[in-house]
Write a structure and sequence with these properties.
The complex is a heterodimer of chains A (about 160) and B (about 80). Chain A is an alpha/beta fold and about 160 residues long. Chain A has a single domain, classed as Hypothetical Protein Ychn, Chain: A (3-Layer(aba) Sandwich). Helices cover about 35% and strands about 20% of the residues of chain A. In chain A, the strands form two sheets. Chain A has a five-stranded parallel β-sheet, sandwiched between helices. A two-stranded antiparallel sheet of chain A has the order 3-4. In chain A, helix 5 links the parallel strand 5 and strand 6. The longest helix of chain A is centred in the middle third of the chain and has 15 residues. Chain A is globular. With about 80 residues, chain B is of the alpha+beta class. Chain B has one domain: Translation Initiation Factor IF3 (2-Layer Sandwich). Helices cover about 30% and strands about 35% of the residues of chain B. The longest helix of chain B is centred in the middle third of the chain and has 12 residues. The radius of gyration of chain B is 11 Å and the shape is globular. Classes of the chains: A alpha/beta (about 160), B alpha+beta (about 80). At the A-B interface, helix 1 of A face helix 1 and helix 2 of B.
Chain lengths: ~160, ~80
């Protein structure tokens, strides 16, 4: 389907989380939708804005996640909150997750983000969040736009699918 | 023989689809793309991909844990 086709379907995604695990759903859906001919816009707000940084330093935290079960040596491991608060646990969990991702042939977030850029997915950074957390547009990847709630609403009103992640 | 072969073995969702989308653009109209995958989810996913994009699934088979799709570039 050609871009700009009046019958082309469109999707918007609000991306609010910037941890390694939560970075997956928006980028997987956005890139897959684009591959299926859908016109995609992603609006990055609050912690989701971390996913637009040039230097991605995504982490995962097992704290307060009773649903996070990691395979380890043929078993499945859960991390008690009491252990999750210790220094270094996030770094360890992040390393474990990245190893699993590579081992299972799952795309990395930089890889999916690059695919998103290549497939002309519109990426909008929330101006208010930039101001709030004193972040600079120069620290973000090239090709993004800045906008606010009204910019998102205009997209959402004309989209077939609107997701909040 | 397909016009192009995409070996997506060992890759997980959504990489086989993303790579197939790129690969099919390199196949002439009405030509065929053969995709090899080890992702069990790719059976349902490639069928959905074809239905949604208007490309045609000619064959969907499995042998020894490898899924093989022949897709005709009709979109």
């Amino acid at each position: 389907m050609a871009a700009g086709d009046v019958n082309q379907k469109s999707m918007s995604i609000i991306v609010t989380k910037g941890t390694l695990d939560w970075a997956y759903p928006p980028f997987i859906l956005a890139t897959t939708a684009a591959a299926m001919g859908v016109n995609v816009s992603m609006f990055f707000t609050f912690y989701g804005l971390a996913l637009l940084k040039k230097d991605l330093d995504l982490q995962i935290s097992p704290l307060g996640k009773p649903d996070m079960v990691m395979p380890l040596a043929g078993m499945h491991m859960k991390m008690p909150n009491l252990v999750g608060v210790l220094p270094g646990v996030n770094a360890m969990a992040t390393t474990m997750m990245k190893n699993l991702i590579a081992k299972k042939g799952v795309a990395s977030i930089p890889q999916l983000r690059e695919a998103a850029v290549e497939s002309d997915i519109e990426m909008i950074a929330c101006q208010m969040t930039l101001d709030l957390f004193e972040m600079k547009k120069e620290d973000m990847i090239d090709g993004i736009k800045l906008g606010g709630a009204a910019t998102y609403m205009e997209k959402a009103l004309s989209s077939d699918i609107n997701l909040y992640i | 023989m397909a016009d192009k072969v995409l070996d997506a073995k060992g890759l997980n969702c959504p990489l086989p689809i993303l790579k197939a989308k790129k690969a099919i653009l390199e196949v002439p109209k009405d030509g065929t793309l053969e995709v090899l995958s080890t992702d069990a989810g790719s059976v349902a996913d490639f069928a959905a991909f074809c239905r949604t994009t208007g490309n045609t699934m000619l064959e969907s088979t499995e042998a020894g844990g490898v899924y093989r799709f022949i897709i005709k570039h009709t979109a």
